[in-house]
Amino acid sequence: MHDGSSPSESSWQRIPLVTRPAELLALLELDPALEALDYEHLRDFPLRVPHGFVARMRKKDPQDPLFQQIWPASAESLDTPGFSSDAVGDLASLKSGGVIHKYHGRALVIATGACAINCRYCFRRHFPYNDSLASRGNWRETLAQIEADGSIEEVILSGGDPLSLTDDKLSAFVSALERIPHVRRLRLHTRTAVVLPERVDEALLGWLSRTRLQKVVVLHVNHANEIDAAVETAITRLRGAGATLLNQSVLLRNVNDSSDTLAALSERLFACGVLPYYLHLLDRVQGAGHFEVNENKAVKLMGELAARLPGYLVPRLARELPGAPAKTLLPW
Ligand SMILES: *Cc1c(COP(=O)(O)O)cnc(C)c1O
Ligand code: SF4
After folding, report:
1. Does the pLDDT value for residue 279 go beyond 50?
2. 61-73: pLDDT as tens digits
3. Does residue 57 sit in the same domain as residue 187?
4. The pTM is what?
5. Are 37 and 74 in contact (CB under 8 A)?
6. Helices 140-148, 167-178: inter-axial angle, 10-degree rounding
7. Whose C-alpha in 20, 131, 173, 255 is 20 to 30 A from the C-alpha of 66?
């Protein structure tokens, strides 16, 4: 804010992203001929990754688990049977004006469709939404719904990524929430804090530490290599602001589908003060078929994890089913 930029723009908003496949391959010293999705398909869900995240990838290794998550592989154009463009049924609820999806006592608010990164396995690739949604109209409709329902104790900001919004917008929303007596907890679901740790800046920590609400930050980390020193610092600051830190991961083929990798992730998270929370089975979205790990293998991995880790480092294996009153946990 003291570097001559406009007061409404923070420095994290100007951090350049890598968006051209050729540039990414050059940065990683990979074969420029590595096959990518054709331009036609790529246009709908482009390559998008912060430089800092690229810096955590191994060079000259097309199998790198971080690279795998963001590289638009040609396999995305394959039509996998059983994979649809609205795997979790969210489009229906969004269209009915529902920015709030309710589990008992909790309201999930789709704050924005924007993200700092495009994860190739994400259901978001098929969402027609842009970065308006709940934050449009100063959150008036969202706040009215929360205020009218005395059973809502926890408000979950999700997306996209709520940290794509400016701190002005977020702190205005949180101030309004604080005036609703039955709301006690605020939860943020964010991957931005991991892929762009610069986002965890003084402005964010300011409103977060000042709120009377209890705070839970659920990160999205899939592999231990995603947590470098800058991410660890961001996590430490979030905890310093009084937030409880949890993590959710997606089980992804060739990224984290081994018990060694998952155990290392749990250990790395806990070393930063983060507890593993959910391990999600992939949402069956078109274009993500090459990431799928079948349920039998998932169950086997959970057994191996439980046999070697303390119980609090074993995440809950879950699958998202449209219309269910809670996450569907898989027995293993
Ligand atoms: C995942 C989810 C929540 C949060 O569920 P927890 O089990 O409390 O983490 C809330 N609402 C909806 C619609 C969800 O999909
Ligand atoms: S950050 Fe989350 S919502 Fe955004 S593209 Fe990745 S998985 Fe999807």
Report:
1. yes
2. 999 999 999 999 9
3. no
4. 0.94
5. yes
6. 20
7. 131
